[in-house]
Specification:
6-stranded parallel beta sheet, 12 helices, 45% helix, elongated
Length: 329
């Protein structure tokens, strides 16, 4: 900063005011300082700034199983929003979302000076862990969390599942079968609730539930049970990967989609538009999820007050070629 001040012909304090975007600097002076910064390639020291402001401008994120599209995309959306807000991100990736690992990870990020922590909490075990946090640092849960004590930002899983089911019913299908996700996942249960609620509202029969593990393999292995079901014409699958496995099995066994069976997935992974046929699915806006999450967290950091709120990001039904009226070629 001394070198910048010397080149710009201003005081050290003036450089500091420019860096902190103070309004009490004349326009021509600000431009001289910024030009000196560009010439010298100067970057402010985050350590020095933290000592002055008491903030590290770093956020902690506790993540889980980033091999899955949902958690990985959620993490990316948070990182993207943090970068846009001028924050760095420190990530603690866990094998298990049980109480001890989650509590330890949050405490470790706090000890490293994180201004706030985001916990990607898609499983029930993580919800229990969040109830036992003792940190004074602001915490926000994403995709799931307790109904009280900390803010939660989530996609409307129930609404998205209901929209997918209603779409199939509106096409004329008498009922809709469902391949759900694993039992401990909050998103899986919320999608079940949306599917079942739409069927109940329509007065349609509620078929037995099938559960997979989010993988294409599980969709493929569950497919024979569906194919043997008399009168089956429509399936809502809890994610696009399991829908891919189902599509593969139907193709191998001479069942055409959507002529014989209509299929709707969930997530809108980048590849879903290139399945055969292109998959009708429910899109989650992970960028918006990240922005909303950062807004809630930074609001607490700026105010210095803990708060509770539940912010819901709408899901969007994307229509492609895997659904049609029953029996239509």
């Amino acid at each position: 900063m001394v070198d910048v001040a010397k080149l710009a012909g201003v005081s050290y304090q003036t450089v500091s005011r420019v860096l902190h975007d103070s309004p009490h600097v004349r326009r021509d002076t600000r431009e001289r300082v910024l030009e000196a910064i560009r010439q010298l390639g100067y970057r402010p020291s985050s350590v020095a700034q933290a000592l002055v402001t008491g903030r590290s401008r770093t956020l902690g994120v506790v993540s889980f199983d980033t091999t899955l599209y949902g958690p990985a995309s959620t993490l990316h959306g948070i990182e993207e929003a943090a970068h846009d807000a001028g924050y760095g991100v420190s990530i603690a990736s866990l094998r298990s979302l049980s109480r001890a690992p989650v509590v330890d990870a949050v405490q470790r990020l706090c000890d490293q000076g994180a201004d706030g922590v985001v916990v990607i909490a898609p499983q029930r075990s993580a919800v229990d862990a969040l109830r036992h946090l003792n940190s004074d640092v602001p915490v926000v849960a994403v995709e799931g969390g307790p109904d009280d004590s900390i803010p939660v930002v989530a996609v409307d899983q129930l609404g998205g599942a209901a929209a997918a089911t209603r779409h199939l019913l509106d096409l004329g299908h008498r009922t809709v079968w469902h391949i759900a996700g694993p039992p401990d996942w909050l998103e899986a249960d919320q999608r079940i609730d949306g599917w079942r609620g739409a069927l109940e509202t329509a007065g349609a029969e509620i078929p037995p539930l099938l559960r997979g593990d989010w993988s294409a393999r599980s969709g493929y292995e569950l497919a024979p049970k569906l194919v043997r079901t008399p009168g089956l014409t429509a399936v809502f699958v809890a994610n696009d990967q399991m829908a891919l496995g189902l599509l593969r099995f139907l193709h191998e066994n001479g069942r055409e989609v959507p002529r014989d069976i209509s299929i709707v997935g969930f997530d809108d992974i980048p590849e879903s538009a290139y399945f055969t046929p292109p998959l009708t699915t429910v899109r989650q806006d992970f960028s918006e999820l990240g922005r909303r999450c950062l807004h809630v967290l930074l609001e607490q950091i700026e105010s210095g007050q803990r708060s509770w709120s539940r912010v819901v990001v709408e899901a969007e039904l994307i229509l492609r070629k895997s659904t049609a009226v029953p029996g239509r070629r």
